[in-house]
Amino acid sequence: MAATSTPGGSQDDGPGEVVAARGIDIYVERLALLCTSPGGPDASSYPLHEVADLTDAERATTMLPLYDTRFTPEWLAAHAGDRALVERIGARSRVDRTEEQLRGEREQLDARRRHDVTDRLGAVTCPTLVACGRYDGIAPPANGELIADRVPNAELRLYEGGHAFFGQDRTALPEIFDFLSA
Predict the structure, then answer these.
(1) Cys-Cys with 168: which of 19, 59, 128, 161 at CB 3.0–4.6 Å?
(2) Structure confidence by residue, pLDDT tens digits, 15-66
(3) Residue ranges covered by each domain of the chain
(4) Handedness of CA 136, 138, 163, 56 (dihedral sign)
(5) Cα atoms in the Cβ-side hemisphere of radius 13 Å centred on 105
(6) How far apart (Å, rounded) are the C-alpha atoms in residues 37 and 113?
(7) What is the rounded distance in angstroms from the CA atom of residue 161 to the CA atom of residue 182?
(8) What's the CATH fold of domain 29-181?
């Protein structure tokens, strides 16, 4: 979680800490966790901070198989939808960002390095859908499996795709919305 500037919280407080400090009770009826990892030594996401200082070409080469482990030149040549997804991701990465956006990216990468909620997963009590892309190299399915094993009332669903499975597998979003609205 990136640092936030929330009135009443410090620069390093995340939204959860601010809510807790103010004594606000939040009730979550249903929860969907997508493309995520609990962090810590056993289930961290790919260390994206390692690619932050690469050139654009190096970053693209490194990130492509992380978005989806099937993303080889041959795969993309044969799968127009995935090729279009990669083009959209590439176009987005070429957009100029403000200094504030760059600072946010740096802080997010730094927070990812320290992130570890593994020991708190058992405190989640609402029905929880853990949804993963079968070919996700950033938050691999094993991380989702660990979350689903430790969250009571959790259900794990693997979808055909990578880190953007919700745009690759047409069954994903309707199933996620159905779960949340049940």
Answers:
(1) 161
(2) 555 555 566 677 889 999 998 888 887 777 777 777 777 777 788 788 888 8
(3) 29-181
(4) negative
(5) 12
(6) 12
(7) 25
(8) Rossmann fold (3.40.50)
